[in-house]
């Protein structure tokens, strides 16, 4: 029994290290892993250890189900399409089989921590450091879902069901420079082992860090059905997203997909509260012409790309 107990402890410790890579930015496992300077690669072994660790905790999910979890990771945003809003809508559609959405991860914009964003370290490193060390300022996050698409339901609270809420959450931050060549770390490679003579070589690009948003329970989407999701924060830059600057992100358009699910880009919410109409003043205009639409109204109308990861379990076909 002592040997079994020690083995279980070791497995949990290894799982802690592995999940720190998966859940970077959640101010516990991932944040501690970053501070420890962990540099781990995602691997099947890591996933297996995480599965065993979760099953040891006596959760309702069986080991086989955890092993079958899939992750859809969205494209990274660049500096020209970096958006920041209080909330974001997006749709997920199941393809030929039922899927169970078990976790959603996202990030806040760099400006969600004004003190850190104004620091010399971040200003000087803004073009070479997408992994901003400091998380966002604390904010409240609420997650909703609706049957069918979210389009047209942005101001209909009766259409939505709350599936998670948490307070004083600090998400990891991204600054929109991930796709720049400057994001590649350069390593000095000496000639013949000499550190005096050599050259700088481009290393591996850094990946953005995402944190979990609150979800009380998984959400099942039937095969062929589409469901809307809405993440709302109390910070006006609490949700980083891709703006529709190059035509690749359109309202209701297919944003990304994999073998089992489709992700659609929908509207954002620039208000700090859900279901609230625009209160942006009408911009100055010539009386002989209709007033132009405000920035708020334009943001309401355009489609924006969700930034982060969708973790789900595909079910066997019927």
Q: Detail the poorly predicted runs.
A: 4-60, 179-183
Helix fraction? 10-25%
Helical/strand content category: alpha+beta
Strand elements, count: 18
Spatial strand arrangement across the major sheet: 7-6-13-3-16-15
Q: For the report, how would you describe the main beta sheet?
A: 6 strands, antiparallel
Question: Tally the helices: what do you get?
Answer: 7
**β-strand amount:** 25-35%
- Compute the CA-based radius of gyration: 22 Å
Shape assignment: globular
Assembly type: single chain
Q: Please report the distance between the alpha carbons of the first and last residues.
A: 43 Å
H/E series: HHHHEEEEEHHEEEEEEEEEEEHEE
Overall pLDDT: 74
Account of the 3D structure:
With 318 residues, this protein is of the alpha+beta class. The chain has seven helices and 18 strands. It has helices at 2-22, 29-35, 44-56, 63-67, 114-117, 120-124, 295-301; strands at residues 70-73, 82-85, 87-94, 99-106, 108-109, 139-147, 160-169, 173-174, 184-190, 198-205, 211-212, 219-221, 226-233, 239-242, 254-257, 261-269, 305-306, 308-314. The strands form five sheets. The chain has a six-stranded antiparallel beta sheet. Strands 1, 4, 11, 12 and 18 form a five-stranded antiparallel beta sheet that branches. A three-stranded antiparallel beta sheet has the order 2-14-17, with no helix packed on it. α1 (2-22) packs across α3. The two termini are 43 Å apart. Mean pLDDT is 74; it is low at 4-60 and 179-183.
Please render the helix and strand layout as text.
Elements: H1 2-22, H2 29-35, H3 44-56, H4 63-67, E1 70-73, E2 82-85, E3 87-94, E4 99-106, E5 108-109, H5 114-117, H6 120-124, E6 139-147, E7 160-169, E8 173-174, E9 184-190, E10 198-205, E11 211-212, E12 219-221, E13 226-233, E14 239-242, E15 254-257, E16 261-269, H7 295-301, E17 305-306, E18 308-314
Parallel strand pairs: 5-8
Antiparallel strand pairs: 1-18, 2-14, 3-13, 3-16, 4-11, 4-12, 4-18, 6-7, 6-13, 9-10, 14-17, 15-16
């Amino acid at each position: 029994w002592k040997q079994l107990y020690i083995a279980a402890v070791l497995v949990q410790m290894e799982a802690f290290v592995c999940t720190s890579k998966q859940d970077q930015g959640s101010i516990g496992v991932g944040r501690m892993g970053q501070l420890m300077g962990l540099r781990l690669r995602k691997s099947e072994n890591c996933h297996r250890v995480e599965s065993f660790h979760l099953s040891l905790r006596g959760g309702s999910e069986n080991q086989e189900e955890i092993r079958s979890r899939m992750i859809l990771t969205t494209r990274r945003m660049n500096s020209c399409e970096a958006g920041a809003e209080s909330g974001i809508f997006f749709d997920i559609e199941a393809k030929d089989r039922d899927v169970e959405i078990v976790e959603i991860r996202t990030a806040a914009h760099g400006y969600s921590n004004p003190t850190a964003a104004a620091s010399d370290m971040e200003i000087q490193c803004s073009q070479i450091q997408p992994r901003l060390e400091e998380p966002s300022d604390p904010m409240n996050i609420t997650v909703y879902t609706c049957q069918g698409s979210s389009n047209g339901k942005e101001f209909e609270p009766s259409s939505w069901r709350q599936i998670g809420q948490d307070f004083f959450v600090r998400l990891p931050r991204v600054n929109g420079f991930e796709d720049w060549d400057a994001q590649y770390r350069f390593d000095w490679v000496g000639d013949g082992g000499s550190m005096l003579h050599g050259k700088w070589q481009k290393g591996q690009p850094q990946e953005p860090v995402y944190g979990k948003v609150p979800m009380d329970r998984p959400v099942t989407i039937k095969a062929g059905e589409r469901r809307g999701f809405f993440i709302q924060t109390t910070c006006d830059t609490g949700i980083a997203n891709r703006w529709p600057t190059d035509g690749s992100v359109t309202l209701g358009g297919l944003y990304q997909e994999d073998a089992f699910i489709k992700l659609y880009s929908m509207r954002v919410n620039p208000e700090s509260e859900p279901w609230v109409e625009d209160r942006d003043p009408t911009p100055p205009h010539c009386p002989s012409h209709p007033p132009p639409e405000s920035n708020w109204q334009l943001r309401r109308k355009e489609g924006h790309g969700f930034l982060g990861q969708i973790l789900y379990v595909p079910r066997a076909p019927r």
